[in-house]
Design goal:
Elements: E1 16-19, E2 22-25, E3 28-29, H1 30-36, H2 39-48, H3 54-66, H4 72-80, H5 87-98, H6 110-135, H7 149-158, H8 164-177, H9 184-194, H10 199-210, H11 218-229, H12 232-244, H13 262-278, H14 282-298, H15 304-314, H16 322-343
Antiparallel strand pairs: 1-2, 2-3
Helix pairs in contact: 1-8, 2-16, 3-6, 5-6, 5-10, 6-7, 6-16, 7-8, 8-13, 8-15, 8-16, 9-10, 9-16, 10-16, 11-15, 12-14, 13-14, 13-15
This protein binds acetyl coenzyme *A (ACO) and oxaloacetate ion.
Oxaloacetate ion (OAA) binds near residues 180, 183, 303 and 304.
């Protein structure tokens, strides 16, 4: 038995690979994609296996625009949710509820699944930004069909045209979070799919799994930690106290990368650039200091969630939207894996090594 299934190969996949610390999507190095690709190109790449040509990309953009509507029933539901609800719980609930209004929800044919993948990807930014407006008592901002995916999210969130710098940084963050081999939430999605359940159920499972602080939820915890520490001078005492208490430092360590997460390097650079452009390097300087201490004390390196916290903060994004934003990007990987699982399916059902009591008789209630 391998605790946490460490190192266990559970599926074959052609979607993304992590080999010797190098991450690729469909064989293309993440460094190349991060520097050059739009999130829409990455969507196409993950779903179809190759980068799109101009016509294919335009078609996908049209489909994303066409499918971004959300049912009025979902709007009323979200308006009735508590204003202080956990945003990942909101997302999990609305994605589950969306299936009730999709006539194709239980159609698991490839065409219907492909359409649902595009629909869910188009709807997630609309849902996240709409709830953010409703909880503040405002009406939502509808997407602008002329905008890119990254541009539209920032536009819907703030109701104003985002700067080019913000759009470029946000697009890169989306590209970096899109897929990551058999991470916990993707595994959840594949386990659900393998029972021949539907795509909404699989994505709902994945959202619930991403929410946890050992996985996608870590980005919000990182920002909470930065805020708690406050200044570079407080970092040493804070981190040492945590480590002495055997507590985890959020945003560090990884099940697969033992020598650094390639995505973290991009996010660090982005954090520095945004900090300098803003003329406020507080969160960047503090993050660098924490990185130095954790590396020195534990030999651990930052993962994707560490510098994304300061990047999102510099972009003015609310802390409790960080993990929904992760989901908004990772939906691309989840749906690609769901499609791949349906294409080559077998029920995923491992065994448990039983470590409980031996055979015992049933003791009647009055004798206990
Ligand atoms: C998108 C993502 O999901 S990226 C990961 C996001 N999660 C986090 O950032 C949460 C903090 N990190 C962690 O909890 C872990 O590093 C995980 C969950 C990412 C990986 O966990 P595992 O592969 O199970 O490693 P495990 O928890 O066994 O750690 C191995 C050792 O390193 C220590 N360690 C690992 N991560 C950390 C950390 N962030 N802070 C302090 N110590 C750590 C463990 O305590 C353990 O030490 P020990 O051998 O003395 O007991
Ligand atoms: O792969 C993992 O275990 C976690 C991770 O980095 C991700 O999902 O991006």
């Amino acid at each position: 038995m391998t605790k946490g299934l460490e190192g266990v190969v559970a599926v074959t996949s052609e979607i993304s690979s992590i080999i010797d610390g190098v991450l690729t999507y469909r064989g293309i190095n993440i460094d190349d994609l991060a520097d050059n690709a739009s999130f829409e190109e990455v969507l196409y790449l993950l779903w179809h296996g190759d980068l799109p040509n101009r016509t294919q990309l335009n078609q996908l953009r049209d489909q994303l625009n066409r499918y971004s509507d959300i049912p009025e029933e979902i709007v009323s539901q979200m308006k009735s949710y508590p204003k202080t609800a956990n945003t990942m719980a909101v997302l999990r609930s609305v994605v589950s509820a969306l299936s009730l209004y999709d006539e194709q929800a239980d159609d698991i044919s490839r065409d219907a699944n492909m359409e649902k993948a595009i629909k869910l990807t188009a709807q997630l930014p609309v849902l996240i930004t709409a709830y953010n407006h409703y909880r503040h008592g405002r009406e939502r901002v509808k997407p602008n069909p002329d905008y890119s995916f990254a541009q539209n999210f920032l536009y819907m969130l703030n109701g104003e045209e985002p700067t080019d710098v913000a759009v470029q940084a946000f697009n890169k963050a989306l590209v970096l979070h899109a897929d990551h081999e058999l991470n916990a939430s993707t595994f959840s999605a594949r386990v659900t799919t393998a029972t021949l359940s539907d795509m909404y159920s699989a994505v709902t499972s994945a959202i619930g799994t991403l929410k946890g602080p050992l996985h996608g939820g870590a980005n919000e915890q990182v920002m909470a930690m930065l805020e708690e520490i406050g200044t570079v001078d407080n970092a040493e005492t804070y981190i040492k106290r945590k480590l002495d208490a055997k507590e985890k430092i959020m945003g560090f360590g990884h099940r697969v990368y033992k020598d650094g997460d390639p995505r973290a390097r991009h996010l660090q650079q982005m954090s520095r650039q945004l900090a300098e452009q803003k003329g406020d390097t507080k969160w960047y300087d503090l993050s660098v200091k924490i990185e130095q201490i954790v590396e020195r004390e534990k030999g651990l390196k930052p993962n994707v969630d560490f510098y994304s916290a300061s990047v999102y903060t510099y972009l003015g994004l609310p802390r409790d939207l960080f993990t929904p934003i992760f989901a908004m990007s990772r939906i691309s990987g989840w749906t690609a894996h769901i499609l791949e699982q349906y294409d080559n399916n077998r029920l995923i059902r491992p065994r448990a090594e039983y470590t409980g009591h031996g055979n015992r008789p049933y003791v009647p209630l009055e004798e206990r």
